[in-house]
Write a structure and sequence with these properties.
182 residues, Double Stranded RNA Binding Domain, 19% helix
């Protein structure tokens, strides 16, 4: 499967570790007449690292992600541009992984002395964000940006789980995508 990315700013999509709901959102340039956008192509490759060696240069991740987005766009009636023609839309994505800390104070009861009434617990976790940008193929102006994010957990150790979470993340993005049939 072919993967190309656009020269715009970062974009990203998140993968989840468990059954939690994916967080995310989108931005739409206004006013936007989406009826003029029927074809798309992936822009030039992104040179930015994800922040996690397990995803950097991971062709399986990249191919499954772009293939899943291709299927979602086809379901909305958008088609890949013919080779040698200018597409109506350029698509770019960027995935990032960031190490986060969660500090939670454990309260062992109201009789615990001295303050702070317990021992804080610190948990490290990886948060992944996937951002997908859609740009005007002629002007390269950002038209729509969608993102999803969640904790990564052990997702990258299980290819089947990774693929299912990519599919769930892309499905969430497709719900908000203003192009094609809704």
């Amino acid at each position: 499967m072919r993967r190309l990315l656009s020269t715009t700013t970062l974009t990203g999509l998140a993968l989840v570790a468990g059954c939690a709901t994916l967080g995310g959102g989108s931005y739409v340039a206004r006013p936007l007449d989406t009826t003029q956008y029927l074809t798309y192509e992936w822009g030039p490759p992104d040179a930015l690292p994800t922040g996690d060696a397990r995803l950097d240069n991971n062709a399986i991740f990249a191919d499954h992600l772009t293939g899943t987005i291709d299927l979602g766009l086809a379901a909305k009636g958008l088609v890949r541009a013919e080779i040698g023609t200018r597409p109506d839309l350029l698509i770019h994505y960027h995935a990032t992984v960031e190490r986060k800390l969660l500090v939670d104070e454990a309260d062992y009861g109201y009789n615990t002395y001295p303050p702070p009434y317990g021992t804080p617990r610190v948990q490290q976790y990886d948060e992944e964000t996937l951002v997908v940008d859609f740009l005007d193929g002629r002007t390269h102006k950002l038209l729509w940006r969608g993102w999803v994010e969640d904790t990564l957990g052990n997702l990258l150790h299980d290819q089947g789980r990774m693929e299912r979470h990519i599919e769930a993340a892309v499905a969430q993005l497709m719900k908000e995508l203003p192009f094609g049939r809704n």
